[in-house]
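Risk register update: the risk of archive-format incompatibility is retired. Evidence:
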Amino acid sequence: MLNIVLLEPEIPANTGNIGRTCVATGTRLHLIEPLGFKLSEKALRRAGMDYWKDLDVTTYADYADFQEKNPGAKVYMATTKAQKVYTEISYEEDCYIMFGKESAGIPEEILLENQENCVRIPMVGDIRSLNLGNSVAVILYEALRQGEFGGMRTEGELHRLKWQGTVESRAKNR
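Archived output:
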């Protein structure tokens, strides 16, 4: 099972959205304190909708507590400062992908200690960063794609109507 780690997240709506993404993908969420909000905040629950109760979430007192409770974990650090693109990594099925707080990212001291595991999402110009929820989704879905979306539904159904033919027959007719 993949793991998303948020280091000191500040905005409850971002964390709620990420929680919902984690439920939808069968991913564990790890929150490292201090948080910029209370886990009982309405904005967090609203963004996570009614999925928050289904979320596999663990909270840690600080980064040292996270390291102590996850010895030997393979942790990738998502940062705009990385020298490697997130698609250059072969993500293990039980790896951890860490994201820093919205205002500052992951502290540079932590990044230096994990230089080989730092990844970035390419962007043009001098944009500081993408929204945290978007960044999590981009990298998480790359890791899931590499695992061939194991255990996930890869085909949808219409509610009132039926799709014409099979996926394979539609592809042939293009």
